[in-house]
């Protein structure tokens, strides 16, 4: 089993409900065990004019191969109405593999650690709720260093429900 962190986001069709449904789907993945989820956060869209996003990070322990997990996550997205019409466009659900154990993955379909996580407060702060304080990414960067370089701006921690 490897510890995997998955970034979650939605800004369409009741985003909180989309994330909760995705968490149920993650908990039922084969050869995997759901571990925990961060608080939900609201963040501004990367593109102007879109609704705000609801984001979280989930932790799984899994024996699935990286591309098998990616396929399963994309099936969950599709099952929840995800349409890939434009890059960074609005979406019902986005599930991104942020970290996959200690692996560096550089495949055409999958880059781990996630290629832009270092610049995204809506990924780093929820991840920090779940990950060990001294987490070192497979590429050698420390999570604490990434947090220090990425201010908590445009991000709002949502109250628990």
TrEMBL record:
InterPro entries the UniProt entry points to: Hppk, Hppk_sf
BP GO terms, sorted: folic acid biosynthetic process; tetrahydrofolate biosynthetic process
Superkingdom of origin organism: Bacteria
UniProt pathway: Cofactor biosynthesis; tetrahydrofolate biosynthesis; 2-amino-4-hydroxy-6-hydroxymethyl-7,8-dihydropteridine diphosphate from 7,8-dihydroneopterin triphosphate: step 4/4
Transmembrane segments: none
GO MF entries: 2-amino-4-hydroxy-6-hydroxymethyldihydropteridine diphosphokinase activity; ATP binding; kinase activity
Residue ranges occupied by any 7,8-dihydro-6-hydroxymethylpterin-pyrophosphokinase domain in the UniProt entry: 87-98
EC number in record: 2.7.6.3
Coiled-coil region: none
Pfam families: HPPK
Entry keyword set: ATP-binding, Folate biosynthesis, Kinase, Nucleotide-binding, Transferase
Purpose: Catalyzes the transfer of pyrophosphate from adenosine triphosphate (ATP) to 6-hydroxymethyl-7,8-dihydropterin, an enzymatic step in folate biosynthesis pathway.
Family listed: Belongs to the HPPK family.
PANTHER family according to UniProt: 2-AMINO-4-HYDROXY-6-HYDROXYMETHYLDIHYDROPTERIDINE PYROPHOSPHOKINASE (PTHR43071:SF1)
Protein name, as recorded: 2-amino-4-hydroxy-6-hydroxymethyldihydropteridine pyrophosphokinase
Lineage: Bacteria, Pseudomonadati, Pseudomonadota, Gammaproteobacteria, Pseudomonadales
Gene from which this protein is expressed: folK
């Amino acid at each position: 089993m490897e510890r995997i962190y998955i970034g979650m986001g939605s800004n369409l069709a009741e985003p909180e409900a989309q994330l909760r449904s995705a968490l149920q789907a993650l908990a039922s993945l084969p050869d995997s065990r759901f571990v925990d989820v961060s608080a939900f956060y609201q963040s501004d869209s990367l593109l102007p004019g879109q609704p705000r996003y609801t984001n979280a990070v989930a932790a799984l322990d899994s024996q699935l191969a990286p591309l098998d997990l990616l396929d399963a996550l994309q099936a969950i997205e599709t099952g929840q109405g995800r349409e890939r019409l434009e890059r960074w466009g609005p979406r019902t659900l986005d599930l991104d593999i942020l970290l996959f154990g200690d692996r560096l993955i550089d495949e055409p379909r999958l880059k781990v650690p996630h290629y832009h996580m270092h610049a995204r407060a809506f990924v780093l702060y929820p991840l920090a709720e779940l990950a060990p304080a001294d987490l070192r990414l497979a590429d050698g960067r420390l999570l604490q260093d990434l947090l220090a370089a990425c201010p908590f701006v445009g991000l709002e921690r949502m109250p628990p429900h």
